[in-house]
Amino acid sequence: MDASGPGFRWDIPARYNVGVDVCDRWGAAEPERPAILEVAADGAVATTTFGRLRTDSNRLAGALAAHGVAPGDRVAVLLPQSAAVMVAHAAAYKLGAVALPLAGLFGPEALAYRLADSGARACITDAAGLAKLDPIRGRLPDLALLVSVDGAAGDALSLADLLAGAAPDFAARDTGPDDPALMIYTSGTTGQAKGALHGHRVLLGHMPGFDRMHAFPPRSGDLMWTPSDWAWAGGLLNVLMPSLRHGVPVVARAARFEADAAFRLIERLRITNAFLAPTALRMLRTIATPRERYDLSSLRNVASAGEALGADTYRWVKDALGLSVGEAYGQTECNLVLSAAPAEGVGRAGSAGVPVPGHRVAILRPDGSEAGVDEPGEIAVARPDPVMFLRYWNQPEATARKFSGDWMLTGDQARRDADGYVHFVGRDDDLITSAAYRIGPAEIEDCLCTHPAVALAAAIGKPDPLRTEIVKAFVVLRPGHAPSPELADAIQAFVRTRLSAHEYPREIEFRDHLPMTTTGKIIRRALRDAG
Ligand SMILES: CC(=O)SCCNC(=O)CCNC(=O)[C@H](O)C(C)(C)COP(=O)(O)OP(=O)(O)OC[C@H]1O[C@@H](n2cnc3c(N)ncnc32)[C@H](O)[C@@H]1OP(=O)(O)O
């Protein structure tokens, strides 16, 4: 499927800095233009303008440089949705450093692994982040600089003080489109999460898919929102940065997702465009006739990605909200390569869409040939592609395994119908998809096995009507420990607080032993089948 289409041509400049592109064009042309609308817990809204994003990111870039952060260094960003996230990212990009977004749901173990593996030199965070970093600092010898949005604490410097003491101008590094800019950790079927390293061009590679799924070009009064953490590719690259590049403001809200609050937010702020993962849309469905209860007339488009939406929810959005979902597909390594285009009437219930112009996507058989109509195969994307990652951080073999010739293999199984629409079939490996999060079982199993009562553990995805799958763990206890609901709760809490609130096993089954291969590997497939 070559969707480059007649007349499509990528326009990737020879020199390009994504931080300058996102903040400075509008920051110079229309400094008072609203960029980020931050909604506090009490509902108050604080607006950050493009002019402020531009000067604050300049100030922070200068301050980071003065504290020894150099081009190529990794700068972690551990913050809830807020203007500071974009300031931190843009500062890193302008400096020629690599921004490393970290999700707020991560516990100390997940953070320790990612910060150590990346050798992050600085972390911009808040008081909650500092509390998680405190017990793991000893394992992070490279982490020399902490900056907190909540003021100085311990050896962490105050972001406000740094900004106040730095110049509003900064000569951004003259980067090329392939120079590293951003690294997002993503889980695989084996081992720990891998850092997918992207060049500055990654944002330009997103633009065609973004425009299609959100029914852009923008209109006057557009306002964008997603509940997805901006630390994920979905929040950062499907929403935040492309919206700002278009000069469209984005709502920042850190509160937990809940249907009534979500509808009230749309009504109050007159949100026009939302990116809602399929699980979020299924949670909204708990309110059957929302247009009778809320004024949702501002909402002109809903986009969705990260897991299969399903025909039922697609139809519910059509009936209940009067909109066709702009469904899309991509991976952190190569995002937004398939999408629907609601504005053009391109979309089909239960399909992730068609290839986005500029990306060559195929459904491949195991022998590498292209599958026929309705024949399942693996989704693959041809390189070069501006949206494609550069490599996995420090993992040349894993990078090599991700490709077969010029095809980047996704591991996702799908079929293409006679009209070219791609329908997701699933995965044939152990990767878990839960609430649009891609979850590797190994990280969970490693964490489970550090619990004093656990001898052996296996994690699988169990089909779930709301979250696509939930994490289920099978646990063999050490001698002296007996299965009980209390122990199951304690083990769940252990993973939730240490590893991550989105990766903990929502179900635990105690077993006397687990199915193993002769070489001692757990056969997760057998556990999945037994479910
Ligand atoms: C290529 C791509 O990247 S595309 C898409 C990428 N993926 C995403 O963007 C992920 C999208 N998913 C989500 O944003 C969420 O899962 C939602 C909105 C669908 C549903 O949210 P929730 O059900 O509240 O929680 P979520 O699954 O994120 O988090 C797990 C736990 O963290 C906790 N939690 C979540 N948000 C918060 C918060 N803001 N504050 C405190 N705790 C929180 C919850 O307690 C939840 O645990 P529980 O259900 O046992 O109580």
Task: Tell me what the structure shows.
This protein has 531 residues and is of the alpha/beta class. The protein has two domains: 18-358, Rossmann fold (3-Layer(aba) Sandwich); 432-530, GMP Synthetase, Chain A, domain 3. It is 30% helix and 25% strand. The chain contains 16 helices and 27 strands. It has a six-stranded mixed β-sheet. A five-stranded parallel β-sheet has the order 4-3-5-6-7. Strands 17, 18, 20, 21 and 22 form a five-stranded antiparallel β-sheet that branches. β5, α5 and β6 (145-148) form a beta-alpha-beta unit. α7 (202-213) crosses α8 (233-245). The chain is globular.
CATH architecture call of the largest domain: 3-Layer(aba) Sandwich
Task: Please give the radius of gyration in angstroms.
Answer: 23 Å
Averaged pLDDT:
96
The hetero compounds bound to this protein are: acetyl coenzyme *A
The level-1 CATH class of the largest domain: Alpha Beta
* Total number of strands: 27
Strand content: 15-25%
Domain AMP-dependent synthetase/ligase: 24-393
Organism: Methylobacterium cerastii
Protein name: Acetyl-coenzyme A synthetase
Family: Belongs to the ATP-dependent AMP-binding enzyme family.
